[in-house]
Design goal:
It contains 13 helices and 3 strands. With about 290 residues, it is mainly alpha-helical. Strands 1-2-3 form a 3-stranded antiparallel beta sheet.
C-alpha cells in the first residue's frame, strides 16, 4: 500500500502533450519525488494515529508499523533556475496577461498569491517599493524595486482604480485560484522548455539573480520575506559558492606577490578552466 502511494506513471506530468496530441516524454524525476513526499506525509499521519491508539491501549503491539520506513532524500527544495534564454523564450510564447504576471514575479520574487492580491495602493512610485501584505510567513514587507521594475509597475497602475487588482486577465477579470497553472504549462511546451516551468521557479530565478549580482543574502532574505537568510543559504548555496570564489580571487588584497605575478596566475587559471587537462589513467598491471 505504501509503495503504491509513492509510485507515479512516467507520463503523469505530460497532460499538456496528451491534450495537444504530442509525444509523451519521461519526466525529470520531480513527479516521482513529489509522489514519494506525499506518501511520507500520509505515513506520518497514519503512524501518529496508530501511536495514539497504542498509547490508549487499543492496540497491543506497535512493532509492525515501526518497521515501515519512509522514503529517504525526497524532502528538498526544487532548485531549478531559469537561464536568460529560457526566460526570453517563455516571455515570447506567453500571452500578454500571463507575460505581465511572469514579469511581476521576475521583478519582485513574490509568490503567485502575493502578486494576485496587489492593488495600485501597494505600489509607491516615490520610494520605488512594493508593499506586500502578510501571507505565508505572516510577515508584511516592502520589496525594493529596480529602476526597470519601477517603470513596469508605473505602466501597470496608471489610470487603474484602487480596488482593481494590478494583475488580471486580458478580459479584465481577476485570475482565479491557480488559474494560471494550465496556461503556464502550455506556454512552457510552446516555448520548448522541458520540464514545464512552474510559477514558483520564477521566485528561485529572482533570488539567484540577486545572489549572483553580489547582493547580500540578508538583503535577499528580506526581499523574499524570510525571517533570516538560513533558507537562502540552503537553497542557493551552490550559487553563492561560485560567486564567493569569484569575489575572493578578484577582491582579495595583495600581501607579498607583485601585480604581474597575480595576473600571470589568473591567466593560467583561466586557460586551465577553458582547456582542462586530460585525466590520465594509470596503466594496469599486465
Amino acid at each position: 500500500w505504501f509503495q503504491s502511494l509513492g509510485t507515479r506513471p512516467l507520463d503523469a506530468s505530460n497532460f499538456v502533450r496528451r491534450a495537444n496530441n504530442q509525444p509523451i516524454v519521461c519526466n525529470d524525476g520531480e513527479a516521482d519525488r513529489k509522489a514519494k513526499l506525499r506518501a511520507n506525509s500520509v505515513l506520518i499521519t497514519l503512524k501518529a494515529a496508530l501511536n495514539l491508539a497504542w498509547r490508549d491501549g487499543r492496540i497491543d503491539d506497535d512493532t509492525e508499523w515501526r518497521r515501515l520506513l519512509p522514503y529517504r532524500s525526497v524532502r528538498k527544495a526544487r532548485q531549478r533556475i531559469l537561464g536568460y534564454d529560457e526566460v526570453e523564450a517563455l516571455l515570447a510564447a506567453s500571452p500578454s496577461d500571463l507575460r505581465k504576471l511572469i514579469l511581476g514575479a521576475l521583478f519582485t520574487g513574490c509568490r503567485s498569491g502575493e502578486l494576485l492580491a496587489l492593488r495600485p495602493s501597494n505600489f509607491n512610485y516615490e520610494s520605488g517599493t512594493l508593499f506586500v501584505h502578510a501571507t505565508k510567513t505572516r510577515r508584511s514587507r516592502n520589496v525594493v524595486l529596480s529602476y526597470e521594475a519601477i517603470s513596469f509597475f508605473e505602466r501597470l497602475t496608471h489610470g487603474l482604480g484602487e480596488k482593481h487588482p494590478i494583475f488580471r486577465k486580458s478580459n479584465g477579470e481577476p485570475w482565479g485560484h491557480r488559474g494560471y497553472c494550465y496556461l503556464m504549462r502550455k506556454t512552457s511546451v510552446e516555448a520548448g522548455l522541458e520540464p514545464p516551468v512552474i510559477f514558483h521557479e520564477l521566485r528561485h530565478t529572482y533570488a539567484s539573480g540577486l545572489i549572483m549580482a553580489g547582493v547580500s543574502p540578508f538583503v535577499v532574505a528580506d526581499q523574499l520575506g524570510h525571517a533570516d537568510c538560513t533558507q537562502i543559504i540552503k537553497t542557493y548555496g551552490h550559487v553563492s559558492a561560485e560567486f564567493a570564489v569569484d569575489q575572493v580571487r578578484r577582491l582579495s588584497p595583495r600581501i607579498e606577490a607583485t601585480a604581474a605575478e597575480v595576473r600571470k596566475t589568473a591567466r593560467w587559471f583561466r586557460r586551465l578552466k577553458e582547456n582542462p587537462p586530460p585525466r590520465w589513467r594509470p596503466i594496469g598491471r599486465i
